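User: I'm writing a short methods note and want a consistent example. For TonB-dependent receptor, I'll paste the sequence; you return only the structure tokens, no commentary, since I'll be parsing the reply automatically.
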Amino acid sequence: MQNKIFNKSPFNTLQAHNASVKMEYFFTESTLSSISAFQKTDTLGNSYPGIFVQDVSKDGNYYDTTEFVQELKVHINYPQGIESLLGMYYKYLLLDNGMDNVPTGNAFPGLPPLYYNGNWRAIEQTHAIAFFSDVYIPYKQWGFNLGLRYQFYNTGIDVPLPPMSPLMPAYKNSISFHFLNPRVSVMYSFNSEHQLFFTFANSTKPAGFSKFPFTDTDTLPYKQEQIYTLEFGNHSRFLLQSLKFDSSLYAMIRENTQAYVGEGYNKSIANIGKAYAFGVDIELSYENSFLSTFLNANVGYSYFGDDEKNKGVLIIGGNPSIYDVRGLRTRFSPRASFNTGLDFLLFSNSNHRLTFSNLLSFSSMYYLDDFNRESELVQKPYVLWDISLIYKLFKHYEITFFAQNLTNSRYATSVLWDGEGRAYTAGNPFNVGAKVGVLSIKNTKREFWLSVDTFYSC
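Assistant:
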């Protein structure tokens, strides 16, 4: 591979089907809600730099998912403004991931261009059950919110064609695990338009299996990651609620961090040590009858801890791949970024609505690799500008004409590198297209609605 090669002819096809049903039953002091949702998404593409398939209609990297979610929850109002929320949900996810006829070479014998087979497959199934509760207790100008969430997971992997075959035989494995996550929030209200808040929360990234089993240990599951977050911020409203200003100072600690580590091509997901992040988020928005605008900005810093677990070695095909990320800034973490949008309502009546939408995004410099800090692996600052014209018909149908990346900014979403050079995958280039969709269909008499969102784009 040559230095700085962007794939000049990447392709990606997507077929997505979504359906959801929401029902609400209203009682005197409570509301019972049920949400059922189904989604099936099939993708086929090739974004690997310098690697070209013969038939773009059936060859390439596929990532197909089938997902079903069922949630039940009840919201109860008590005297003196106390509220509670109790609920449970079930989630099923089937992931079918792999490659068909991608000319990567062969993992045995010798060293191919990408070190693994271009025909491989990994299938993962996940069942998750959760029970959650929240309670809100007001006291004068104070408000206290307490939450607790229990989750149980069962995840299984079936790899009939490993990428490292025949060095890695076909295998199956499964794991069950559970965790409990608390959350505490304290709010102080100066009045109905200005509040301060403090939040402590614990969340968990589930354990699982590598979707791309590459190393000798990928037949074993990686462990769950614990995340602890502190936030202090405000919610403010001005001009009769038309102008909103929200801000938050945050600090985050991650333990048993799930990270892609290794050197060059020889990487896989593993549990390493601690990682830290801190910064400030700002959200500013304004809306009136014909115009709406917003600004979301972040200034922050994220880095790996200086502990021994952030140094180690992976074994890939019997060969060691050493990593050491101690004290280094994490990849894909710019110190400053923002998104700002501006929408104009051009025309509106009971059956028709025409809107012109703008979205501008900025990112400062960030690293493309966790521990290689060469200048060739640094993404320079860039700006993206997207526009769209959205026509809604009879409140249930939508036609959108769009243009993306009008600045035609060149930015990388991933990089492959070794001693022979670097190869980059480009972000979304300038493109234009259209999509049509069917939006929510609501039956107010029976207090439920059916939402079917289907979009086609080119």
